[in-house]
């Protein structure tokens, strides 16, 4: 290996190392982003790319009319790694924004949201 | 307190911790490097090294406590005073909280031992074990331990220790050892050992860096494309340049300046001082990057 290339790889690796792992981010959900359901869901499922701390996660639903619905405190989904479940109140037909806050296993807090629709 | 302020405070606490921990490791290594020297110059360096270790331990402990206070406010969404009451819950209920507790207890042990042995030889090996415990616990509390214990945790711990030897070795040299005219034999011996240690540490940083970076990036550099996280990418670029400068300065000292020691001692000291400042900036940039929002894969 040529010296300049070895030097470049060494500096690149040194600079990248401690930080190249992203914080907790959503990889799947039920309802899915943009999904239309035939009735109100009883629970929201969120699956992340890494372990999250359920006790410090939050899920809030906001209707297209701006009304807030707090989901129950999330608990770990024992059937799916890195997933949480939260019961939600009965939702009337309409479009809802699910706003989530998650705390990853590294202690970092991340936020996100997605929309789904409950059909008439 | 808004999210941006809390993120800034967390980054500041992380940066101070990283600098403090690196200095602890470097001061401890310096004490080991000076162990079989006999000159007054080396004895004064060792005495300042012990004081530096004590101060660096205290700094890292204060930063660690501040980090947990910021975490409690962030996680509880409460006012700072109320949030502090939730610290116990954060420690008990979260993996990073438990790892933090282990690191903080080991730090407190280091502070206690360092204060108790400020004026006599410190138990270097026992403190070495304690700093290793801190490195493993700190790695477990961060990204590497986010999914529980895996090969990433010890790899990151070695990375933290190697970074501490490289950067902290330079800090300790500048702050504790490189004062006044050096002893002819001990000065050259110390410079040679420090350079060999830095080279070995850099090799450790690179090996563990390649492993964790490749794992974190999923085996692809695509997520580092410039448009995925502009600010994060710019700081990464700055850090790349700073690391390259530090490696180059170390290379100049080792291959150009050191062969003509002790005549070139002033140049050796001047270059090492610049390298220490550059490495300080590298640690600050690393803390910013580790607490920032990296590109999503």
Reported by name, the CATH topology of chain A is Immunoglobulin-like
Helix content of chain A: 10-25%
Spans where pLDDT lies below 50 across 5 or more residues of chain A: none
The assigned CATH architecture of chain A is Sandwich
| Average pLDDT over all residues of chain A | 84
Name the beta content range of chain A: 35-45%
Class of secondary structure makeup of chain B = mainly alpha
Structural class of chain A: mainly beta
Count every helix of chain B, treating DSSP H or I runs of 4 or more residues as helices.
10
Q: How much strand content do the residues of chain B show? A: under 5%
* Oligomer state of the chains in this structure: heterodimer
Shape of chain A: elongated
Number of strands of chain B: 0
Low-confidence stretches of chain B: none
| Largest interface between protein chains, with number of residues from each side | A-B, 31 and 48 residues
The major beta sheet of chain A can be summarized as:
5 strands, mixed
N- to C-terminal distance of chain A: 66 Å
The coarse silhouette of chain B is globular
Give the total of domains of chain A: 1
Number of strands of chain A: 9
């Amino acid at each position: 290996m040529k010296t300049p290339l070895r030097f470049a790889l060494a500096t690149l690796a040194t600079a990248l190392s401690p930080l190249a792992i992203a914080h907790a981010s959503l990889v799947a959900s039920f309802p899915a982003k943009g999904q239309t359901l035939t009735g109100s869901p009883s629970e929201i499922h969120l699956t992340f790319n890494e372990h999250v701390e359920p006790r410090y996660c939050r899920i809030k639903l906001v209707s297209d009319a701006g009304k807030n619905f707090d989901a129950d405190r999330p608990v770990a989904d024992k059937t799916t790694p890195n997933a949480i479940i939260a019961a939600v109140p009965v939702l009337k037909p309409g479009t809802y924004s699910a706003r989530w806050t998650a705390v990853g296993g590294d202690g970092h807090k991340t936020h996100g949201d997605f929309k789904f629709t409950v059909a008439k | 307190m808004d999210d941006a302020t809390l993120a800034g405070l967390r980054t500041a606490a992380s940066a101070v911790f990283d600098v403090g921990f690196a200095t602890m490791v470097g001061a401890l290594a310096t004490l080991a490097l000076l162990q079989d020297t006999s000159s007054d110059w080396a004895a004064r360096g060792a005495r300042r090294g012990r004081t530096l270790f004590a101060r660096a331990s205290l700094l890292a402990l204060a930063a660690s406590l501040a980090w947990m206070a910021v975490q409690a406010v962030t996680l509880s969404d409460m006012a700072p005073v109320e949030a502090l009451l939730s610290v116990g819950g954060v420690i008990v209920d979260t993996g990073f909280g438990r790892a933090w507790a282990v690191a903080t207890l080991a730090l407190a042990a280091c502070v206690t031992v360092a204060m108790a042995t400020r004026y006599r030889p410190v138990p270097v090996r026992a403190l070495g074990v304690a700093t290793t415990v801190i490195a493993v616990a700190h790695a477990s509390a961060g990204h590497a331990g986010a999914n529980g214990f895996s090969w990433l945790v010890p790899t990151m711990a070695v990375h933290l220790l190697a970074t501490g030897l490289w950067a902290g070795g330079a800090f300790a040299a500048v702050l504790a050892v490189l004062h006044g005219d050096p002893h002819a034999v001990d000065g050259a011996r110390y410079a040679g050992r420090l350079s060999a240690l830095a080279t070995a540490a850099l090799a450790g940083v690179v090996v563990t860096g390649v492993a964790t970076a490749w794992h974190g990036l999923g085996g692809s550099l695509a997520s580092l494309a410039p448009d995925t996280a502009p600010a994060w990418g710019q700081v990464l670029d700055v850090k790349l340049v700073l690391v390259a400068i530090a490696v180059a300065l170390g290379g100049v000292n080792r291959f150009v300046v050191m062969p003509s020691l002790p005549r070139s001692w002033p140049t050796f000291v001047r270059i090492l001082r610049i390298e220490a400042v550059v490495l300080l900036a590298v640690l600050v940039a690393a803390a910013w990057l580790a607490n920032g929002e990296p590109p999503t894969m």
